[in-house]
Amino acid sequence: MKMKIQQTTLQAVFSEISRFRGRDIMQHIHLFVNEEDGLTFRVTDGEVTYVKKVALSNGEDVIVEILTPGELLLPPKFEEVTRKLSSGMMSVTLLDMNQIEVKQGKTSAKINGVDGELPGIPEHVKGDGITLTTEVLTSLVTQTAFSASDKDARPILKAVNMQSDETSFKVTSTDSHRLSQKSIPKPLKLPTLNIPAKRLAEVVNALEEKQ
């Protein structure tokens, strides 16, 4: 695997995905490099899997240049090294023995990587889903998630419930003392879901920050 990427783009990606990285091996970032799709970064903390895609260009400037496609696990040290580089294009090459070489101008570094797969990341297979704007999703979550319980005694109450009937899509949460519900007059084909409120709110916050 070999590519060139804007250093500022890489640091922006790390900043966005950092909250969803776990501990130990799950601190690593899975990077898939493909000439058709560009770059796909995936991280997980065991509960949330966050995927960030980077296109080859923004229509005017080249952001990524792929010389050899492939995939690898980026260790935490990779982020530390690239953060110290200046803005501009830098090259990243996967060498033998899972070493990762980083170059920019006269500066170069080799970082020891690891072999294997990142645990906790399921195969990326799309099933049935729905499409909501960030604004609508934010409204649904922020007006309900605060009522969810933070107690472990009844885990189901720590979740936000999502379900649809023939007339509307409803989002509900309760800690058994208070109940919050928000609905939109749009039936959506989605099975009933219970999603951990705290983690859902974190994902929504990340989406808002991208706007």
UniProtKB/TrEMBL annotation:
Q: Which Gene3D superfamilies did the record assign?
A: DNA Polymerase III, subunit A, domain 2
- Which top-level group of life is the source organism from? Bacteria
| Endpoints of the signal sequence | none
Sorted keywords for this record are: Cytoplasm, DNA replication, DNA-binding, DNA-directed DNA polymerase, Nucleotidyltransferase, Transferase
Q: Indicate where this protein is primarily found.
A: cytoplasm
Cellular localization per UniProt: Cytoplasm
Q: Where is the DNA polymerase III beta sliding clamp central domain?
A: 132-209
One Pfam family per UniProt: DNA_pol3_beta_2
Family per similarity comment = Belongs to the beta sliding clamp family.
The UniProt entry, under PANTHER family, shows: BETA SLIDING CLAMP (PTHR30478:SF0), DNA POLYMERASE III SUBUNIT BETA (PTHR30478)
Q: Spell out the protein name for this chain.
A: DNA polymerase III sliding clamp (Beta) subunit (PCNA family)
